[in-house]
Amino acid sequence: MRVAVAGGTGLVGRHVVAELRDSGHSPVILARTQGVDLTTGVGLAEKLSGCEAVIDVANVVTTRKKVAVDFFSRSTGHLTSAARSNGITHVVTLSIVGSDEVDFGYYFGKRAQEELVRNGGIPWTILRATQFFEFPEPLLGARSPVVMMPRMLTQPVAAQDVAEMLVEHAVRGPAGMAPEIAGPDRLDMVDVARRIARAQGRRRLVVPVKLPGKVGRAMTAGGLLPRGEYVRGRRTFDAHLAHLEAA
Question: Which of the following CATH numbers is that of domain 2-246: 3.40.50.720, 3.20.20.70, 3.30.499.10, 3.30.450.40?
Answer without folding.
Answer: 3.40.50.720
